[in-house]
Amino acid sequence: MTTDTFTTSPVASQPSLVVLSRPNSTDTEVPRWLGQSVARAAKTRCPKWQGLCLVNLQSRLAFEVSCQRWDCPHCVQVKAAVARWMIERGMRSARALDQRVRFITLTLGARGGSVGDLSAAWNRLRLKLVRERRLRAYVAVVELQRRGAPHMHVIATGAFIGQRKLSFWAQQAGFGPIVDIREVEDNEAVARYGAKMARYMTKESAKALRASRTGLATRIRPVRSSRNWYKGGLRAAERDYLAGRRKHLGTKKPTGRWIMVFRKRDGDVAVLGGLDRQALASPS
Ligand SMILES: [Zn+2]
Asked: Which end of the chain is less enclosed by CB atoms within 10 A, N or C?
């Protein structure tokens, strides 16, 4: 595939595909800087990288965009690090409010079952706990295993619940009889359980997801939380975590517009999304 001209969509809101020339093209119609930026893009370690890059129109810096899937051996590490940060923050703020913080392991018992069954049982138990005023916020992780039934690990904050009562309610909701409940008693325990939760999301889950061939399994998101665990959920946590990292490293967030481009194998660059020629020619 060689050079095309700038063909933008007649409807501005309609995404269009603009195919630009090769990076070394001498065609004056084409902003060569874009091809050059993309050729020098900061590399991602994601093994599933498919050629997507983000380019800042102001700084002209480009970054390869990782796949950000839970079943990717690289991206899962990044996602789990963010989730762990979010989980630990929630535990610390609950402790600051003198809430109980507990780590609960739930299984479907001898019958076994699917992730969907676990999820449905948790929905029932969660509603019961809320009705009984024993649950304030929660974050739950599904531990997938290649063999055997999946487990659910929940960090729940709120009032005290006795083990026997919780076990009874859990069975009513559809879980198995064995319920493990641990108090997260200090900051050292917060870090320990944060790490534990992250581990469930990474090693075994990624392996199990890769091993699974069903379409359903690849869409599983191994972590979920109540709305009040972290405002905006994991997506907001990702943004805040990155901002925190930047602050820590003393770097500023690049300003100006970003475009998403696709770098093809032959070196051609395609701009994804509706962009006019002016925006590319004179970045602002
Ligand atoms: Zn990836």
From this structure: C
**Separation between Cα atoms, residue 125 and residue 131, nearest integer Å:** 10
**Cross-sheet strand order for the sheet of 180-183:** 180-183, 100-106, 151-158, 137-143, 223-225
C-alpha 67 to ligand 1 mean position (Å):
4
Calculate how far, in angstroms, residue 203's C-alpha sits from the geometric centre of ligand 1. Answer: 14
pLDDT for residue 30: 43
Q: How far is the CA of 77 from the centre of ligand 1 (A)?
A: 9
Distance 50 CA to ligand 1 centre (A): 9
Q: Which amino acid is at 99?
A: Q
Mean pLDDT for all residues in the chain:
79
Question: How far is 258 from 55, CA to CA, in rounded Å?
Answer: 6
49 CA distance to ligand 1 centroid (A)? 6
**If you measure from the C-alpha of residue 78 to the centroid of ligand 1, how many angstroms do you get, rounded to a whole number?**
9
Residue 219 pLDDT more than 60?
A: no
Task: List the one residue out of 70, 49, 67, 48 whose CA is nearest residue 207.
Answer: 70
pTM of the prediction? 0.77
CA distance 221 to 166: 26
pLDDT (tens digit, 9 = 90+) per residue, 79-119?
999 999 999 999 999 999 988 999 999 998 877 888 888 88
Dihedral (C-alpha) 196, 202, 208, 213: value to the nearest 10 degrees? 150
- If one counts every other C-beta atom within 10 angstroms of the C-beta of residue 137, the result is 20
Distance CA 77, CA 86 (A): 14
C-alpha 33 to ligand 1 mean position (Å): 27
Which single residue is written with the structure tokens 């487990």?
151
Sign of CA dihedral 79, 252, 233, 186: positive
